[in-house]
Amino acid sequence: MQRVLFSLWLAALPAGALLITACPTEPGDGDGDGDGDGDGDGDGDGDGDGDPGTYAFTSKFGTGSSVSYGGQASRHLLIEEMKGFIGTLDENSAIALAHEDIMASLVFFYDYANAGGTGEDTLTVTLPGDGSLEESTFGEVGGTTSLKEKMPGINIAWDAGVLGYKDGTMTPDEVVLDMFDQYATLVNGRALDSANLPQDPFGNDIAKAYVSPAGVDHRELIQKFLGVVPYSQATDKYIDDGADGSGLPSDNTALVEDKPYTALEHVWDEAFGYFGAARDYDLYTDDEIAGAADTERGLGYYDTDGDGQISLYTEVNKGHAVNAAKRDRGVTGLDLTAQAFDAFMAGRTLIAENEALDSAQMATLEGHRDQAVQAWEHAIAATVIHYINDTVGDMDRFDNPCDTPDEEDCYRFLDHAKHWSEMKGFALILQFNPHSPLTTADLTDLYAAMGDAPVLPGADAQTVADHRAGLLAARDALGTAEGFSPAHVEAW
């Protein structure tokens, strides 16, 4: 796991607070978004056409690479930086952090470009194994960007509340701020009364400051829901049909001013950057992408260009690209990693080899888009199913709480909270893909089955049975809607 030392948020913390380390997942090249928002200034990564199976394309009207997606890389990094910040506060839960200071620190990551971020902050990063990193500052990874600016309802039209969160009336931005507020209130309360920490259903102090007595893991819930930014930006903007001339109808006949790419090349690349695949993703096995193989690529990264350093931008797998591999592992007849990468490659090749696309070429490009988006959605939906299975498994162990840290096949409250919160966070972002097969009714039923918090040990037997049955029914319905086989649904 990469570790990054990030410092500017310290200005929002009281004296005595400790430095925070966090885990990035998405590197970048310092490039902007190609949509006039000014969130970066790079011009590409300097590589040209690569080997077959490598996402690398030369500028069609100039020299060097035309591939660039640093703004997207930065936002993935900001999400993981925030997760690391939340985790480190747990280690300092006795510090009387004021609610407003915690909120300010979270907003620093959420709206980095407008909350004090400069891009010049030094990153202290280590990779598992012996990987030496190429980038050393946040700016080298992707400049100064903002998650908040790219939320649906701010950057993308969104005129409804977020289904499945409280009463369903909050905008995505309001949901994020409400999640921040709940977390800040929890941590501040622990700090102010450290002698009486919140307790789990068995009367034990809850060791993690980000886990509530209700069984909500706020670190996981916040991180997973913030995946709405890469997912919605790709599916609902960059490779959408673009009635306003953006997205796939973008121009492909001339370079964007002072850039080595056309507008269509760039929007396609930005979607690829949000997916999170290394440039040579197709050369990895699923185990390698998941970081679970004893091979030279088995930690999820590889020195592809042989320069002795690992680029966080091009040579590390992250985000949903990793989740796709995790869901491919251990099942047959499914290859989400290949489906997504092959579609991104085929679409980008079509764009690179042509200028203005005729109607037949555009239809082909839309088909590649549909395949990439379907694989992406399937990776998320399958991950929701995976965590439903984990949550049900936790409930089945209610009568056997763990007595020792290394005991197996027993109930752990923190695991239950983590699994439920990952399930809910991933599920909430499924509503932001305009190409999804899921209907509003499908999503409403899914969220109703999950509820606003897990059912915990101590609940009456009928409540437990109803919640368990509801989760399994929701799991099966989601699998059917997404076209998964019952065997896959059960295996995840």
What's the short version?
The chain is mostly helical and 492 residues long. 44% of the residues lie in helices and 1% in strands. The protein has helices at 70-91, 99-110, 138-142, 172-192, 218-225, 228-238, 263-275, 286-289, 320-328, 336-352, 359-395, 413-429, 440-450, 461-482, 486-491; strands at residues 4-6, 20-22.
Query: Uncertain runs with pLDDT below 50, 5 residues or more?
Result: 1-50
The number of strands is 2
Shape: globular
For the report, how would you describe the main beta sheet? 2 strands, antiparallel
Alpha-carbon distance between the two ends: 23 Å
Helix and strand run = EEHHHHHHHHHHHHHHH
Give structural notes:
By secondary structure, this protein is mostly helical. 44% of the residues lie in helices and 1% in strands. The chain has 15 helices and 2 strands. The chain has helices at 70-91, 99-110, 138-142, 172-192, 218-225, 228-238, 263-275, 286-289, 320-328, 336-352, 359-395, 413-429, 440-450, 461-482, 486-491; strands spanning 4-6, 20-22. The protein has a two-stranded antiparallel sheet with strand order 1-2. Helix 2 packs antiparallel against helix 4, helix 5 runs parallel beside helix 12 (413-429) and helix 7 (263-275) packs antiparallel against helix 10 (336-352). The longest helix has 37 residues, at 359-395. The protein starts with a strand and ends with a helix. Mean pLDDT is 87; it is low at 1-50.
